[in-house]
């Protein structure tokens, strides 16, 4: 169950302007390239997202991009549904459209989205957007959510080994990894469970290595996330930015993908309750 534990993690400086258009364009263009090459039969294959075909997943990836472009309505906020359940219902509704229509929507939305995030004012970037039980975020940070969605779903739910499509893509660049992990880290204070917040009695240092790497200090009880490694921490979690996207979202076990130091037993217990999306 998601809940809001603090107010600072979601206030990480939003990214907008020219620096975000490159990862956005790369992420969405890669989705168009992969899905555009699939047959109608392949698009009906089950994805690694439980209950979703590749066609349903394409609908899901079209929603946020089409929503920003004004070509699709945003996901309705239903107080009776968890955010992910609301997203599931909306994705299935949009999936009533044909493969070609979804691809056309995604393709038509791309230039609008690039203009929106490339030219937005500070005031628009700071405007709060509600994601229901997942929390509220500055509009500028939605660019990272889009990059995360496309990078993660495409590489880990569409393509093998988890997904059904046998195709190899180049490793994602640092800009996309930084954008995607920035979204996940910005959600720690609101997306993670009550149990995680209860167990996090002392700060935890999160060190993301490799392309797109960064360092963050997760405050006690998930009350915020501070960039950089300054300040005391009871334990440190070291993992690559690419691996973080997989295990932090619950797609693969973290074991073998993280290095713990300090109070490792404490970090291990806390991470058992950690999940962002």
Comma- or semicolon-separated keywords:
single chain; 2 domains; 277 residues; five-stranded mixed sheet; two-stranded antiparallel sheet; 12 helices; 11% strand; Four Helix Bundle (Hemerythrin (Met), subunit A); Nonspecific Lipid-transfer Protein, Chain A; alpha+beta; globular
Short synopsis of the structure:
The protein is 48% helix and 11% strand. The chain is built from twelve helices and seven strands.
Describe the structure.
This protein folds into two domains: 180 residues, Four Helix Bundle (Hemerythrin (Met), subunit A) (Up-down Bundle), CATH 1.20.120; 78 residues, SCP2 sterol-binding domain (Nonspecific Lipid-transfer Protein, Chain A), CATH 3.30.1050. About 3% of the residues have low confidence. The protein is 48% helix and 11% strand. It is built from twelve helices and seven strands. Helix 1 packs antiparallel against helix 5.
Write the layout of secondary structure elements.
Layout: H1 18-36, H2 40-43, H3 54-69, H4 83-94, H5 99-119, H6 122-125, E1 128-130, E2 136-138, H7 142-158, H8 174-186, H9 188-191, H10 194-199, E3 204-209, E4 214-218, E5 225-227, E6 235-240, H11 241-248, E7 259-262, H12 264-271
Parallel strand pairs: 3-6
Antiparallel strand pairs: 1-2, 3-4, 4-5, 6-7
Helix pairs in contact: 1-5, 1-7, 3-4, 3-5, 3-7, 7-8, 8-11
């Amino acid at each position: 169950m998601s809940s809001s534990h603090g107010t600072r993690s979601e206030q990480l400086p939003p990214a907008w302007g020219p620096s975000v258009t490159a990862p956005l364009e790369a992420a969405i263009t890669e989705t168009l390239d992969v899905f555009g090459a699939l047959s109608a039969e392949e698009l009906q294959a089950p994805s690694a997202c439980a209950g979703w075909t590749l066609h349903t997943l394409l609908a899901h990836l079209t929603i946020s991009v089409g929503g920003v472009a004004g070509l699709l309505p945003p996901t309705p906020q239903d107080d009776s549904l968890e955010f992910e359940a609301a997203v599931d219902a909306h994705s299935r509704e949009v999936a009533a459209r044909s493969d070609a229509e979804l691809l056309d929507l995604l393709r038509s939305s791309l230039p609008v989205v690039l203009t929106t995030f490339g030219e937005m004012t500070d005031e628009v970037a700071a405007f709060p957007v509600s994601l229901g039980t997942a929390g509220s975020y500055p509009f500028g940070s939605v660019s990272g959510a889009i990059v995360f969605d496309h990078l993660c779903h495409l590489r880990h739910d569409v393509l093998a080994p988890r997904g059904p499509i046998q195709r190899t893509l180049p490793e994602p660049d640092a800009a996309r990894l930084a954008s995607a992990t920035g979204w996940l880290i910005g959600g720690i204070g609101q997306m993670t469970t009550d149990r995680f917040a209860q167990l996090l009695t002392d700060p935890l240092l999160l060190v993301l290595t490799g392309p797109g790497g960064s360092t963050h200090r997760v405050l006690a009880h998930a009350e915020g996330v501070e960039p950089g490694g300054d300040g005391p921490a009871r334990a440190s979690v070291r993992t690559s930015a690419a691996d973080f996207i997989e295990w932090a979202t619950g797609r693969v076990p973290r074991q073998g993908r993280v290095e713990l130091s300090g109070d490792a037993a404490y970090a291990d217990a806390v991470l058992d309750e950690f999940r962002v999306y």
